[in-house]
RNA sequence: CGGGGCGUAGCGCAGCCUGGUAGCGCAUCUGCUUUGGGAGCAGAGGGUCGCAGGUUCAAAUCCUGCCGCCCCGACCA
């Protein structure tokens, strides 16, 4: 992309409304624009990041055996009356009436819709396990939206729903999601820890929240240090084998956010294993059994010929929130530092002297080579001063900066800078391209 | 939803107390100079002062109501 033909409205000053660093940087870097409280438009750069996060989530869901669908944003109130949640949900649900006076709502989640789909088609235990997910906009009319897209009213969520014939099978489905989530966060360059969450009325131990560590996180997290260092299981585990050991290696170690914290258990650990940190909740998984299948009549016929209510779980990732959370976890004074997996562009080419034949030629050559290699470069070909280009490129956080100035061109070299470390080297163009392309 | 605060040019703000021509910086446009960390000079454009009502000869300014937005608390991807 040539910046002269792009739309990347960066700001020198953040709007006064924005308080936390990710919100300020998202506005300054031209990722989002607020349209109303908790409602945002995604500008080109922000949209690219959002799509990349979405794709990482999608790939890991698919790998773990989930199947993507797309459910509507607008749902029928009747389904929610069936599950009994229509009245419970209260003011957080945006209720709509259409021209026929039919009651609709903007979906805050999709248990009812997915259960309705499931019960319409799936009748046999032989079709299980099944896990259906979608990545769709949700609306929750929060009392107090804040912190930009971190807590918006409209937000993009990946929500997956598992269907199993019994609780043991549901646990296996749960375990798949548990480990898939760790892989998602690892690919996004985040340190994530699963903490035990309030399981609600169902009880049991199958409810976890995933907290990513960031100094500016909203909640306090207490955890066994090994849990962080253990990291993600990686893509190559046997997803339909026995995952219990991988999961219990982690769940056996202490981890809790402030509301579930058990100080006595925490203090009982060796001091050097106690870790206290700030975290941002970016995922929540839980098992809820027959909560929806029973009232909505989602049954399958079991091996014994008898119908049983299907056992369900649901698994949410805040995709749009992740964009902000990644920034909270990865930025510096100059701006955003995107992990390569979600960076809006793979590299930036900075022409420090647009109009200079040598600089133009080197930049065009670099731009073409990077484009051909699939790096998706952003070429700053604007007629602007070097300082402005450096500042803007740092701000938007592109991992590599290929800096082309007249002095270097005269000597046959360019400068290559890593955004994350600030490390620079001066080298011939070919070597710089090799370093980026690999 | 309770408490606090703010709405003046795209962004950041001053002006309001004490009513009288709507300002500053950045950004934008034109020209010249400049060119390795958000340039300089000269000029230009851009505003229903959130909305409505009231007081007044006169309202950004005073009064009333409404709307919007932000922050703190209780809840959530």
What name does the CATH topology of the largest domain carry?
BirA Bifunctional Protein, domain 2
Q: Please name the fourth-level CATH homologous superfamily of the largest domain.
A: Bira Bifunctional Protein, Domain 2
**Could you give a short account of the major beta sheet?**
9 strands, mixed
Spatial gap, N to C terminus: 21 Å
Structure class: alpha+beta
* Global geometry: globular
- Strand tally: 23
Helix content: 25-40%
Total tally of structural domains = 2
- What's the CATH class label of the largest domain? Alpha Beta
Radius of gyration: 24 Å
Descriptive notes:
The chain is of the alpha+beta class and 438 residues long. The chain has 2 domains: 3-336, 2-Layer Sandwich (BirA Bifunctional Protein, domain 2), CATH 3.30.930.10; 347-437, 3-Layer(aba) Sandwich (Rossmann fold). Helices cover 34% and strands 28% of the residues. The chain is built from 15 helices and 23 strands. It has helices at residues 21-28, 44-63, 77-83, 85-88, 111-121, 167-187, 225-230, 244-251, 263-267, 293-296, 319-329, 357-372, 386-396, 406-411, 429-437; strands spanning 32-36, 39-42, 67-68, 74-76, 94-97, 103-106, 130-139, 154-164, 192-196, 207-213, 219-224, 255-257, 274-289, 299-301, 307-309, 311-318, 331-332, 335-336, 347-351, 377-380, 400-404, 414-418, 424-427. The strands form 6 sheets. Strands 3, 7, 8, 9, 10, 11, 12, 13 and 16 form a 9-stranded mixed sheet that branches. The protein has a 5-stranded mixed sheet with strand order 20-19-21-22-23, with helices on both faces. A 3-stranded antiparallel sheet has the order 4-6-5. A hairpin with a 5-residue loop joins strand 5 and strand 6. The longest helix is centred in the middle third of the chain and has 21 residues, at 167-187. It starts with 20 loop residues before the first helix and ends with a helix. The structure holds one RNA strand of 77 nucleotides.
């Amino acid at each position: 992309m040539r910046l002269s033909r792009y739309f990347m409205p960066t700001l020198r000053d953040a709007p006064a409304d924005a308080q936390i660093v990710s919100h300020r940087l998202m506005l300054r870097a031209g990722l989002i624009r607020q349209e109303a409280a908790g409602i945002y438009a995604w500008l080109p750069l922000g949209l690219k990041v959002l799509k990349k996060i979405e794709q990482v989530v999608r790939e890991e869901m698919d790998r773990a055996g989930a199947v993507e669908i797309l459910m509507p944003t607008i749902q029928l109130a009747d389904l929610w009356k069936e599950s009994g949640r229509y009245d419970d949900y209260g003011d957080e649900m945006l209720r709509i009436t259409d021209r026929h006076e039919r009651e609709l709502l903007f979906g805050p989640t999709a248990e009812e819709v997915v259960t309705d789909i499931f019960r319409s088609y799936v009748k046999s235990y032989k079709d299980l396990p099944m896990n259906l997910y979608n990545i769709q906009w949700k609306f929750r009319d929060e009392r107090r939206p804040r912190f930009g897209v971190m807590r918006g009213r409209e937000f993009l969520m990946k929500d997956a729903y598992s269907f199993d014939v019994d609780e043991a099978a549901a646990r296996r489905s749960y375990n798949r999601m548990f480990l898939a989530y760790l892989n998602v966060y690892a690919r996004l360059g985040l340190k994530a820890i699963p903490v035990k969450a309030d399981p609600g009325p169902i009880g049991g131990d199958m409810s976890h929240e995933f907290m990513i560590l960031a100094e500016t996180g909203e909640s306090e997290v207490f955890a066994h240090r090994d849990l962080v260092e253990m990291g993600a299981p990686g893509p190559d585990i046997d997803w339909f084998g026995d995952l219990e050991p991988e999961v219990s290696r982690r769940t056996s170690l202490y981890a809790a956010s402030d509301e579930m914290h058990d100080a006595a258990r925490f203090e009982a650990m060796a001091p050097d294993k106690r870790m206290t940190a700030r975290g941002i909740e970016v995922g929540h998984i839980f098992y809820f059994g027959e909560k929806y299948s029973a009232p909505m009549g989602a049954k399958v016929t079991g091996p014994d010929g008898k119908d049983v209510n299907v056992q369900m779980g649901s698994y949410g990732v805040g995709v749009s929130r992740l964009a902000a959370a990644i920034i909270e976890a990865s930025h510096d004074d100059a701006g955003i530092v995107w992990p390569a997996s979600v960076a809006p562009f793979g590299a930036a080419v900075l022409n420090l002297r647009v109009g200079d034949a040598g600089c133009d030629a080197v930049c065009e050559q670099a731009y073409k080579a990077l484009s051909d290699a699939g790096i998706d470069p952003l070429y700053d070909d604007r007629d602007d001063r070097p300082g402005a280009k450096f500042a803007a490129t740092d701000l938007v956080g592109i991992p590599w900066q290929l800096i082309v100035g007249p002095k270097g061109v005269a000597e046959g070299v360019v400068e290559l800078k890593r955004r994350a470390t600030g490390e620079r080297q001066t080298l011939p163009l070919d070597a710089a391209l090799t370093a980026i392309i690999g």
